[in-house]
Amino acid sequence: MTPLSAPPRIAGLRALQAFGLTLSTLSLAAFALLSGAGPGSAAPVAGGPAPQFTVLIAGRDIVYCYYQQPCKDQEQRTGLVQPPNTDTVMLVKVDGARVRVLNIPRDTNVGPFDRFKSVAQQKVNSQYWAGGPEALTRAVETITGERVDAHVIVRTDYVARVIDALGGLDVTVPEGGIEWVDKAAGVNLNLAPGAHHLSGEQAVLFLRVRKGFGDDYGRIDHQKQALTQLAARLRSPQGLTALPTILGGIGNGVETNADPNLLAALRPYLGGLKLSFATLPTDEIPGTFNLAVNRERLTALWNDTPAAQSQAGQAQPSARVRVVDASGAELGEALARALQALGYPQVSVNRTPQSNEASQVFTGQALQDANLLAEALNLPRLQGERFPVGPGEVGVFLGQDARTALAALSGPGTAP
């Protein structure tokens, strides 16, 4: 098999951020709030009885002073081979127990495109280098139309140890397998098709490659699935065991103005967090690689509450549902019967080998229907650009954890 062609060494290391900082959304960033790292703190956010705030999460490059040689001082800004861009940028909106994560593609244009300005300098990933976290914050506010209450900028060199502390990552390698050998960069990743349990080091390499996942959007969608799995572990006893490792790694690797009281306000809600993930909808700007925000679709993402039912409760589900059963307990057929009894017109079941990946609801644009199912099943909802669902279709992935999360399906009398 021909090895995947690696990007230039230094530029290629940015891809670590694409997953690493997504993970930091629920781990490193949260514990950065707890530790109060950084010289300044933003004013506490008043949100009434339930905390309401937004946090910008960004992953900055490791800076290099020589070819393949990281600088000893990771905070220096002179004498660099390449400036530290932020290729992973996310806005996290917290409303009590509801946490929504919006991934912003690195090529997103800040404001209207100006053909008389540098194309690269208009991208969101260049704003941190141009003006620090304040400039990046202003850019994200311009892009999303949302106020940003605090920022957390995290370096990527903690990612592998955090994944290890959370017990590694369970993945399913697509048909064709993955082979990436690059001796000069110290990369030797060979994974056959099927289920694998990866160490932190293997996981960050696996989540860099595009093979089997299409393009950057496909890789982002895949990373959301991985985060869903790790977020569940973070809230488990294993997550508590991992705290010393995660906290010990923050040290000088986090740049934030977040108020430590934000996390304290969240503590009563941690046990019942409802997570949803989405990608900023964009359109291509002709003649460039830059992307323009699609405001209409963004509004739909923010207003993604389940469709309201009538007073008599007669609203009928209209979405087609695709159940992927990797529970190892044949829960898919039981879930299909239950959904059909609730009025879902088309429910298909595809049984796959047992998986330790996290159960979830996923969709492309059928947001309200997906939210309705996610609420009913108490599962995270993922929206993405490359999930294997068609228009008006919602997918439900049942991993081994569904045996506990949806235990009622395994008993007699499953269907309502």
UniProtKB/TrEMBL annotation:
Q: Which residues form a coiled coil?
A: none
Domain of life here? Bacteria
Pfam families xrefs: LytR_C, LytR_cpsA_psr
Occurrences of domain LytR/CpsA/Psr regulator C-terminal (ranges): 319-401
* Domain Cell envelope-related transcriptional attenuator per the UniProt entry, residue ranges: 85-234
Family statement = Belongs to the LytR/CpsA/Psr (LCP) family.
State the protein's name: LytR family transcriptional regulator
Q: Which organism is it from?
A: Deinococcus arcticus
